[in-house]
Amino acid sequence: MSSIIDVTLPHTSYNIVISPNTLEDVGNHLTSLQLGKKILVISNPEVFNHYGETVINSLNKAGFKVFYHLIPAGETYKTLESISQVYDVALKHRLERSSTLLALGGGVIGDMTGFAAATWLRGINFVQVPTSLLAMVDASMGGKTGVNHPQGKNLIGAFYQPRLVFIDPMVLKTLPIREFRAGMAEVIKYGVIWDQDLFQQLEAEKKLDSLENIDLEVMDKIITKSCQAKVDVVSQDEKEAGIRAILNYGHTIGHALESLTGYSQINHGEAVAIGMAVAGKIAVKLGMWQEGKTERQDNLIKKAALPSTFDNKLKSPEILDSLQLDKKVKAGKVRFILPTDIGQVEIRESISSEVITTVLEEIKIK
């Protein structure tokens, strides 16, 4: 059964369509958007091998002229060099302002495709067809696009909204289990920051570590609730002037860990899981919430087979230095999103280095 979430923003609106077993219908959904005939599909070889033919056939049947370009999988390819290659292909096929870039893949492909769409000819159409859980519940909506700088994640980017997000949860069947778990970190995040009912639904599940261990109807509900949570927040604050910052729960420390490990040792979801564990313990030390609620959060992290500790080879001073390079730093102060209850968080600045260091030392693998 399909569900549609309407995203209404000051200058644009679009739909998030969640429709199991309907990937072959994506072309029909695009016909109503009054797009130009040319569509350039951006994907990676692994995803394209599974779903490229289905998507391209669907677009062709709907009357579009389709091209494709593949970028190797992984954060290490989320660079300006990869974007330059997309520009080259766009130029080769004479993409116009009415043309469309379609992202078929996970968060990395979505972020890069969106950034390329935002900057080619000062902005062309952009469609998201996410294939990872992380992209479905987080990266594919909200308009954040960009690439990494060697010294920091997503430091180069733009806010640019898609024309459509089309989600077929059944494509998760081919998602590597580690990537499924990475997406579950973002789902847990929504439960902590916004949706108490979602948090309790996750607690009711015996396991959250693979698609096989979750009923498909429940999975659809988890995806829909997560998407709705993000839409609720982004609709209030499109460009992160205020409340949208709460979506960065777990990301402050998480981004630092990703950067310090060269985006190759731990993936985004694993880093966010560790970041949530750190944030929860900081909140307890500051008297903002109770130890028992931190344990409930950490139990969900464990249930999803995600880490809540990190390698002691990473030194606390290095992590503190990396925090200063985070794009969320304001007037030299690192912002932390800290929980006050299940479903509620606060934005806090000026958390002392001593408190951060103490928590980091506590959760390191000894």
TrEMBL record:
The keyword DNA damage does not apply. The keyword Zinc applies. It is an enzyme of class 4 (lyase). One of its GO terms (cellular component) is cytoplasm. Zn(2+) binds at E186, H251, H268. Residues 183-329 form the 3-dehydroquinate synthase C-terminal domain. Keywords: Amino-acid biosynthesis, Aromatic amino acid biosynthesis, Cobalt, Cytoplasm, Lyase, Metal-binding, NAD, Nucleotide-binding, Zinc. Its EC number is 4.2.3.4. It is found in: Cytoplasm. Binds 1 divalent metal cation per subunit. Can use either Co(2+) or Zn(2+). Its main location: cytoplasm. Residues 70-181 form the 3-dehydroquinate synthase N-terminal domain. InterPro entries: Dehydroquinate_synthase, DHQ_synth_AroB, DHQ_synth_fam, DHQS/DOIS_N, DHQS_C. It catalyses: 7-phospho-2-dehydro-3-deoxy-D-arabino-heptonate = 3-dehydroquinate + phosphate. Pathway: Metabolic intermediate biosynthesis; chorismate biosynthesis; chorismate from D-erythrose 4-phosphate and phosphoenolpyruvate: step 2/7. Catalyzes the conversion of 3-deoxy-D-arabino-heptulosonate 7-phosphate (DAHP) to dehydroquinate (DHQ). Belongs to the sugar phosphate cyclases superfamily. Dehydroquinate synthase family. This is 3-dehydroquinate synthase. It comes from Crocosphaera watsonii WH 8501.
